[in-house]
Structure formats: structure tokens, C-alpha cells
Design goal:
Chain lengths: 323, 341
């Protein structure tokens, strides 16, 4: 799939936040791509910059954040350099996004049918009387039972799982080419999580969309994704097809993440944890490898600029001492 | 998903207000009796003999003990009788009914002015945060709230009537040569419109403008500040982020989504400042010789004329109850979560 021009290709993206505590270098040298029809997982612990990355791609960062370098080419257009008017034509229509905590992500005092219609009115040229029909179809597509009645419901009258279905309906309403799902199952109970993930996967496959699944849950990503991008403290540390990543993790952090993921037959007591925590990104001089302080493979070579070791065409690692 | 009808809510709220109204009746009765000064001596006049004063006291029922006086007050109240003013000799209820529209017209028009200026100002200050308009808005509102309301009134009179001569003399609702429109609502603006009398409409608007602006300046600050804060909260919320991520137009994001959500705290503030204004009314009416219930209450208070004071406080209490009711109804219209409870 990588031979063809990818749908989205992010190169050397760097992003910083101005805060009272100083400049936070939230992303550095972030590169990855998403092919047409591909589901790519972006995995990392909280604070690794996954969500910020997705907000930067849609340019919905809050005003303290600033992209300082890099490109993100989508369908030939650099999202980071595009004019605001061009971005408005992209958001919701070419790239759509669903968020964690779906109940808060929906307007609490607007009927969900109206919220769907707002999106449909913005992005389709369907005549007014068709819009309501289209909105109900969208609700049916995400398998909301009794869609006609739910059309008139407010978010507080729905369960968390149903709210996330409504979010998905909003996202796919304009049939975008790329769906970004930012922790779509966080805060849902386990059964609902599975149902929601199945729904996302089905819709992406059926509508020939691509998707980016952002999650801290490596197991969740392994079930749905073709490839996985592992992030740590604003760096991409490893990129590999899902199977290769689990079979032969090359970056010490990835290996430890997999070791920390429970499987069917692992005992809780044998689960490993990763020592230390993310470095403070406000620090004036961060180590070149931001994992070095937590890494058992650390050698003095690790203080040199990071190489990008490529094991085969699809598997790359940013590490001096790969496994 | 069935929502309760608004009427049921209104009825329950009115029922719930009865205990507080009963409390107000008791407290006003006690407070007016505790006022300094002897109404009987005042009413009998400076030259009256002690016997005459005692005679008046008997007539007024003031020789009875407090409990008996209270029972009498209650039974009169039950018949809609608020007693008589000792200074004007008119029944208090008639005077209050005649004067209430003047106060309400002034207060509501002032509130409308304040809302029309302060809410857009707050929205602009939030959407263009830290721009010049944000700073100008902060400056105007801070200045407005730092001036006492009677001073603002006198200042406006000095500038626009005395110096510039743009405003008519601050002597009530109409100049002495004009006659009031036929009473339908008691609001001169509405009544003159109903009578299709444009001349009268401009005349009453001219009189109304300065006192209404005085009131508006007084309450603009909390309104603008609350609008700005509520808009900032709404604009940084998750659902606003969703609308931006979905590519909705800026108009939809700011007005259809953020502003409507921000209106809830703004409505609360509107109710709060309206009650401030009912209090400020007393001073503004005095400064502009406005024939409302505030000016009436002040004159009565100065003369130890307790019946109008009692009537005034009771009227205010009823206004407060109605005001809170209106706010609750507005709430349930804006926020479906309230209506569902």
C-alpha cells in the first residue's frame, strides 16, 4: 500500500505550546503516513502527544499551540499551510473526527437530529426537505435503534454508547475520506467498547475510508489496525505493521508496552510496568532520545542525534540500540 | 422523552412562593412598626394637643397591641386593602397600581438597554479576546459599576440637560404641557404606540432615555462580564471543539452553539441585575422626579407614613417572586435538561 501516494503523509511535524511554565515542545520530528483504506493506530501513554497531533492535523488546536515545522500533506494539500477557508472545506467533509467522552462532545441543549442536520447542511447540497431524511439514515447507519424517535432526543437522554454512535454518525455524515478517532471508547463499558469499535471498523471498511485510531490501549489497536505508530513524549519511536510490531518489537519502549499489556493467559502478577514517567517537556534541554532516562538499553551513544533505523520497508525505529 | 408542560411548573413555583410571601408580610409589618417617629403625632400636625394626638392614634388603631394590629392588617390585606396614605389621603393600593407602570417601564427599558449593549459587548470581548474591543469593554463596564447610580444620574442631567440642552428637563414621564396617552398598559411608550401618537411617543421616549441610561450603566458591568466569561467557557468546551472539527461555519459555532449555551448564566445574571435595578429605582426616580413606586416609598418613609411603605415592600416582594418565576421558565425553554426534571 505504501507504494502508492498515501492519503495523508506527515513529515517532521513539530509543535510547541506557550505556557506560563515555559515553552512545551509537545511534538518533534513526527512522521507517518496513512494509505487509502488503511487503519493506522497511534499508540502511547497519556501525554505522549497523540491528541495534540490529531488537533494539529485539523488545525483545531487552542491558541497557545503552534506548529513550528513540518508538513502534513492530505490529497496534495498541506494541511498545516492551507488557508482557513480551505480547512473549512476539509473539516467534517474530507477528514472527520470523533472524540473521547462523547456526552461532553455533543451540544447538551440541541437535539441530536438538529446537530446532524447542521453538519449535513454545511457539507451536502441536499434540498432542505431531504436533510431530515438523511439525518435519520445516518442514525440508522450507526445502528441506533428507533432512529426516528432518537432524532428528537437530547444527548442527556441517551446512554454513553449511544452518544458515541451519534458522534460517529456526525463524523461519517459527509462521507469523509479519513476518520480520526481519538480514544473513541474511553469512558464506555467493556461490552459497549467492543460494539463501538466493531461499528467504526465496519463503517470504515464499507465506505472505503481510511482511519487513524488514537488510543493508549495497545490491545485495542492490535484488534483493529493494519499498522501501528508508537509515540513517546512527542516522538514517534516505532512504526510497524501490527503483526510485526507484536512479533518483533524493535524499540525498548514498544517492547515494554507489549509486556505491560494483559493477554488472555497472563497473570496480573506477571504484568510488567514501565519504570519512570514521561520527561517534563518544559525542560530547557531535553535528551535527544526522550526515553533514555527510562531505558535499560541506554548507552552513551544515545546522546547523539537519533537515527531512524529501517528494518524493512514497513518497519522503522528511532533508536540507537534497537532490540 | 416526554417533557412536562410549562404551566405545571409555573403553578408549582407559585405555590412554593406562598411561604416566602407570608414571611414578607410579617417582616414588613414588624419593620414598619419599628420605624422611628410617631405616625399619630405626625398626622395630627405640629400644633395638635396631646388629646388630639391620642384621638388620631385611636382612629388609626395604633393604641391596640401589636398582635391585634397585625390581625387587623391581615384581614384588610385579605380584602385587597393596603390601608391609606396619611399624607395624600389616597388608598395605598390605588396609588401603587397607578405608579407601578412608571417604575416598571423605567426598569424594563433600562434592562433592555443594558442587555442590548452588554451582551453583544461580552460576546465580542470573548470572541476577540485581548483585542482592543475586549479592553474597551472592560474599561466601560468598570467605569459604569464604580459610579453610584444617583451620581451617574446627576452627571447625565448636568451634561445632557444643563450643558448641551439635548435632553428635556428631568421632571417626570412627560413635560407638564403634554397629556398622558389613554391608559391601556400604563407604559407610555406602548400606550402612545397603540394610540398611534408619534409626537407623544417621542416626547415620552425623550423623558425616559436619561433615567433608563442611568439604570443601564449601573448594570451593564455584571452583564457584560458574565456574558464574556460564559462565552469563553462555551467556546472552549468539548462540544464547540466538535463543531469546529465538523467544519461548521464560524457563525454556527459562535451563535447557534456557544451563545445559546452561554445564555444560561446570562439569564441568571439578568434576573440578578433586575433585582439590583428594582432597588436602584428608588434613587433614580428621586433624581428624575419619576412618579414611580420608589419615589412614593421614599416620600412615605420620610413622613413616617407606614401604610405606603408596607405596600411598597409587599409589591417588591411579589415582583421578586414573579421575576424568579420568569427566569425559571426561561431556563426551561433554553435548557431541555431543566424542563425534564
Amino acid at each position: 500500500m505504501t507504494e502508492a501516494v498515501p492519503l495523508l503523509s506527515v513529515d517532521n511535524l513539530a509543535l510547541e505550546f506557550r505556557t506560563r511554565g515555559g515553552l512545551v515542545r509537545a511534538l518533534e520530528n513526527v512522521s507517518f503516513h496513512v494509505g487509502t483504506g488503511e487503519i493506522v493506530g497511534i499508540v502511547g501513554e497519556s501525554g505522549s502527544g497523540k491528541s495534540v497531533l490529531s488537533h494539529a492535523l485539523l488545525r483545531i488546536l487552542d491558541s497557545a499551540g503552534r506548529v513550528s515545522a513540518g508538513r502534513a500533506v492530505f490529497n496534495g494539500l498541506d494541511l498545516l499551510a492551507a488557508r482557513e477557508a480551505e480547512m473549512r472545506a476539509i473539516r467534517g467533509r474530507k477528514i472527520a473526527m470523533i472524540f473521547q467522552n462523547p456526552r461532553a462532545a455533543l451540544n447538551p441543549i440541541r437535539k441530536i437530529g438538529q446537530q446532524l442536520e447542521d453538519v449535513l447542511m454545511q457539507h451536502t447540497h441536499a434540498p432542505r426537505h431531504d436533510i431530515k431524511k438523511r439525518a435519520i439514515e445516518c442514525l440508522e447507519q450507526v445502528r441506533i435503534p428507533d432512529a426516528l424517535r432518537r432524532y428528537h432526543a437530547y444527548p442527556f437522554e441517551l446512554s454513553g454508547g449511544q452518544c458515541q454512535r451519534v458522534m460517529i454518525a456526525l463524523a461519517i455524515a459527509a462521507e469523509p475520506a479519513l476518520l480520526i478517532a481519538d480514544e473513541p471508547t474511553t469512558g464506555l463499558d467493556v461490552t459497549t467498547q467492543a460494539v463501538v469499535m466493531d461499528l467504526i471498523r465496519d463503517l470504515v471498511r464499507r465506505n472505503h475510508m481510511s482511519a487513524i485510531l488514537i488510543t493508549h490501549d495497545l490491545a485495542l489497536a492490535s484488534e483493529s489496525c493494519d499498522r501501528i505508530v508508537v509515540m513517546h513524549a512527542g516522538h514517534v519511536v516505532e512504526t510497524a505493521p501490527t503483526r510485526a510490531l507484536f512479533a518483533t518489537p524493535r524499540h525498548p519502549y514498544t517492547a515494554r508496552l507489549i509486556g505491560a499489556t494483559p493477554h488472555d493467559c497472563t497473570d496480573v502478577r506477571t504484568l510488567a510496568s514501565i519504570p519512570g514517567s514521561l520527561p517534563d517537556l518544559r525542560a530547557a534541554s531535553l535528551p535527544l532520545c526522550r526515553f533514555s532516562a527510562r531505558c535499560e538499553q541506554y548507552t552513551s551513544a544515545c546522546d547523539q542525534p537519533l537515527p531512524l533505523a529501517v528494518f524493512n520497508q514497513h518497519h522503522s525505529v528511532a533508536c540507537h540500540t534497537p532490540l | 422523552m416526554a417533557r412536562k408542560p410549562v404551566w405545571g411548573t409555573i403553578f408549582r413555583r407559585l405555590l412554593g412562593a406562598l411561604p416566602s410571601l407570608a414571611g414578607v408580610v410579617v417582616v414588613t409589618f414588624i419593620l414598619t412598626r419599628a420605624l422611628p417617629g410617631d405616625p399619630a403625632a405626625f398626622f395630627a400636625g405640629a400644633a395638635a394637643t396631646p388629646e388630639a394626638v391620642e384621638e388620631v392614634r385611636k382612629q388609626l388603631g395604633l393604641d391596640k397591641n401589636l398582635a391585634q394590629q397585625f390581625l387587623r392588617y391581615l384581614s384588610e390585606l385579605a380584602h385587597g386593602d393596603l390601608g391609606q396614605s396619611l399624607t395624600t389621603g389616597q388608598p395605598v393600593s390605588t396609588e401603587l397600581v397607578n405608579r407601578l407602570p412608571a417604575s416598571l417601564e423605567l426598569t424594563l427599558f433600562g434592562l433592555l438597554l443594558a442587555a442590548v449593549v452588554a451582551i453583544p459587548l461580552g460576546v465580542l470581548a470573548a470572541t476577540r479576546r485581548d483585542s482592543w474591543i475586549d479592553h474597551v469593554s472592560r474599561l466601560i463596564t468598570t467605569a459604569g459599576v464604580s459610579l453610584p447610580v444617583f451620581f451617574t444620574g446627576l452627571l447625565l442631567i448636568y451634561i445632557f440637560y444643563f450643558k448641551l440642552g439635548w435632553a428635556p428637563s428631568p421632571m417626570g414621564r412627560l413635560d407638564p404641557y403634554a397629556s398622558a396617552p389613554a391608559t391601556v398598559t400604563g407604559f407610555f411608550i406602548i400606550d402612545s404606540l397603540l394610540a398611534r401618537d408619534l409626537g407623544l411617543l417621542t416626547a415620552s421616549l425623550k423623558q425616559l432615555l436619561l433615567p433608563a441610561i442611568t439604570m443601564a450603566i449601573f448594570v451593564m458591568a455584571p452583564l457584560a462580564r458574565m456574558t464574556r466569561a460564559a462565552m469563553l467557557t462555551a467556546l472552549s468546551s468539548d462540544y464547540t471543539r466538535t463543531t469546529r472539527a465538523m467544519g461548521l461555519s464560524r457563525y454556527t459555532v459562535v451563535y447557534r452553539y456557544a451563545l445559546r449555551n452561554a445564555l444560561l448564566p446570562v439569564v441568571t445574571t439578568l434576573g440578578m441585575v433586575f433585582s439590583f435595578m428594582l432597588g436602584a429605582n428608588v434613587l433614580v426616580e428621586k433624581v428624575f422626579s419619576w412618579p414611580g413606586i420608589g419615589a412614593y416609598a421614599i416620600e412615605a418613609l420620610v413622613a413616617s407614613d407606614y401604610a405606603p411603605v408596607q405596600g411598597f415592600v409587599l409589591t417588591m416582594a411579589i415582583l421578586y417572586v414573579l421575576l424568579n418565576l420568569v427566569i425559571d421558565v426561561l431556563y426551561s425553554i433554553i435548557d431541555p435538561r431543566m424542563a425534564a426534571q
